[in-house]
Amino acid sequence: YIIDEVHMLSTQAFNAFLKTLEEPPKHAIFILATTEKHKIIPTILSRCQIYDFNRIPVEEIVKHLRAITVKEKIEAEEEALHVVAQKADGALRDALSIFDQLVSFTNGNLTYDAVLKNLHVLDYDYYFKLSTYLNDGDYSSALMLLDEILKLGFDPGHFISGLGSHFRDLLVCQEPKTVELLEVGNAVKQQYLDQAGAIDAAWLLLALKEAQQAEFRIKTTVNPRLLLEIALLSIAGIGTGEKKNSESDLTGTRRIVEPS
Q1: Where in the sequence is the domain holding 91, given as residue range(s)?
Q2: Residue 95 within a domain
Q3: Could you tell me how far CA 42 lies from the centroid of its own chain?
Q4: 130 and 209 housed in the same domain
Q5: pLDDT at site 242
Q6: Would strands 109-110 and 75-76 be described as parallel, antiparallel, or unpaired?
Q7: What are the residue ranges in the chain where pLDDT is below 70?
Q8: Residue 38, Cβ density class (10 Å: 0-12 exposed, 13-18 middle, ≥19 buried)
Q9: Of 209, 213, 202, 150, which is closest to residue 171 (Cα–Cα)?
Q10: SS3 123
Q11: How many C-alpha atoms does 136 have within 13 Å on its Cβ side?
Q12: 110 near 81, Cβ under 8 Å?
């Protein structure tokens, strides 16, 4: 017998169930499933064998989905399957549910663009473009791109969370040992490696902190767009003062050495 979400039982229900659990019929096996083990009373927990199930890695979910596409003769791009796996957040059941819906919506042809559209997921290209603008201090282009993203109907909270994740992924690409922590397809991974090589790690760390602070504050603000714009301006301003000072020093040096 499987009791799903067993932590939802009341204390009275647990106490009534305890006697059966202590002396179950020989033919009966009880499987108690929960995501909140701490809510189960100790007298029940002490009489159970506990097995912890962890999130399934993205690559493992992709392999399983790929096997289904081969068996069912479904056309699916590799990057599309990675988006489904990431959306499932480690849960194979959710991945299969999303996959089934997408197969129906796309008539069995899962392209990367079709999956993004149906799941309403922001394309990686937006984050790559925005990171380039911000790192270059091009705040006007960054604000215009933000306007385009918001007009597409993306939630401000999800956007800033995604930007923070993008900065994190760029950081892990800074070192060969941590590249394997990047859970994306090969094509997107190469884009991350290319951009990570062009951006300073110290800048990324500061940008990530700004994004995290904005993600925390956006939950309580009455004007999410303004908060996002301020956050992007702050990120775009990282290091610009140092660059200007460096340029001024170089100009001053040239003036000194140039003959009168």
Answers
A1: 58-119
A2: yes
A3: 35
A4: yes
A5: 52
A6: parallel
A7: 239-260
A8: exposed
A9: 202
A10: coil
A11: 12
A12: yes
